[in-house]
Design goal:
369 residues, mainly alpha, disordered N terminus, binds retinal, binds fe (ii) ion, Probable beta-carotene 15,15'-dioxygenase
């Protein structure tokens, strides 16, 4: 896989140099800010404010089903599913290479083997697979945020402990905090996954008040310890640390006040996926050039174009699975099928992102110094 071609060679090599072993370039910081972070702050902040106000007024609006499922449904088309549909191009580009058929084949085989194995595991052991899905997402979303924090130039995350804490906290916010406040709705979602395979969750101690109280207390301690560990590494008033602490607070409040289906669906699109899209812009020479010229829309259009074919294939595959399996068309069942489908794609997606982290010196082994 040593082939490089034309203009991408030098630009690609520059990307690798810029991402592995040197501080983030100003243009990378800007893309992560403008594309990856600002929209998420705005959308999640607004939703949290609305939900907190409604809650404070003592109103409990029974949201119609279409509103509850809308963010998840939208994620199939807008940013969510598409953010992984560039996985066939991202590894080569991260290594500063042009994606050739050999790269595509390598990623394709990885998807088939890992996705196939996980699909088989869902059929054999749905409850364990559901737990694995939540654990995998915890890790993946945590690592996504760690990358974004590095990319905007945070300096308080040097050190293995604070990095591990950041992954645990940032991943636990979407995966654990909804369970603390909305155990019944959380349970309904996970129940629907295992029901697809004719199973039930069973006693599931994790939903009991005692277990949730203990998990919530432990997670609050890990959050505070991580934020303080970061604080010790920089001078007072460090902007990167303050931003991290403010995001952490925002996400705690958001997942405590916004009902989980909406909260996780919106977070998936507007937070995790947009941050990954910003990362994709940075490894694609053409998109990066557009962004460096201040044309973020052109950069996004380029990523969107790259994502289009495999997004369409994924949706067609999902529709085929739904038809063959003959699932009913209740929103809860369709959402469950979609999420199990995402789970199967997530395992190879996590492998691709872990590979990108390794090449870029990012992730737990980082920061890129
Ligand atoms: C919807 C939902 C849940 C789980 C969603 C998951 C696990 C989504 C994973 C998406 C991934 C991995 C996308 C790729 O990056 C919970 C928290 C169980 C309960 C609340 C509603
Ligand atoms: Fe992802």
């Amino acid at each position: 896989m040593s082939d490089t071609a034309g203009g991408e060679e030098s630009a690609g090599a520059r990307t690798a140099a810029a991402t592995a072993g040197s501080a983030p370039k100003p243009s990378a910081r800007r893309v992560m800010f403008v594309v990856g972070c600002r929209p998420g702050w705005f959308v999640l902040g607004a939703l949290a404010a609305v939900a907190a106000t409604v809650g404070a007024l003592g109103v409990d609006p029974a949201l119609p089903a279409w509103v509850r499922y809308a963010p998840l449904a939208a994620s199939a088309l807008v940013v969510g599913l598409p953010h992984g549909a560039v996985d066939h191009l991202a590894p080569a580009r991260t290594a500063g290479r042009t994606p050739t058929p050999r790269w595509l084949l390598a990623v394709g085989i990885g998807y088939l083997v890992l996705g196939g194995a996980y699909a088989a595991l869902w059929a054999l052991a749905p409850v364990a697979s559901a737990a694995l899905f939540v654990g995998l997402t915890w890790l993946h979303w945590g690592q996504g945020d760690l990358y974004a924090l590095d990319s905007i130039g945070s300096r308080h995350l040097e050190g293995a402990g604070v990095r591990l804490g950041t992954v645990l906290v940032r991943g636990g916010l979407p995966m654990l905090v909804p369970l603390l406040r909305f155990p019944d709705r959380y349970r309904q979602v996970v129940d629907a996954w295992v029901a697809l395979f004719g199973r039930e969750l069973g006693s599931a101690w994790i939903f009991t008040p005692g277990a949730r109280g203990a998990l919530g207390a432990a997670f609050a301690v890990v959050t505070v310890a991580t934020v303080l560990a970061g604080r010790r590494r920089v001078s007072a008033g460090d902007a990167g640390w303050r931003r991290d602490a403010a995001e952490t607070l925002l996400l705690w409040v958001y997942f405590l006040v916004v009902p989980p289906l909406v909260a996780v669906g919106v977070y998936f699109c507007a937070w995790h996926s947009l941050r990954h899209v910003a990362r994709l812009v940075e490894v694609d020479p053409a998109a990066r050039r557009a962004a460096a010229d201040g044309d973020e829309l052109a950069a996004l259009a380029r990523v969107g174009r790259d994502a289009l074919p495999l997004t369409a294939v994924s949706i067609a595959l999902l529709a085929a699975v739904a038809l063959v399996a003959g699932v009913d068309t209740a929103p809860a069942t369709l959402a469950a099928l979609y999420l199990v489908f995402i789970a199967v794609l997530t395992l190879p997606h996590v492998a691709v992102v872990a590979w990108m982290d390794r090449v870029q010196g990012a992730g737990l082994a980082g920061p890129p110094s």
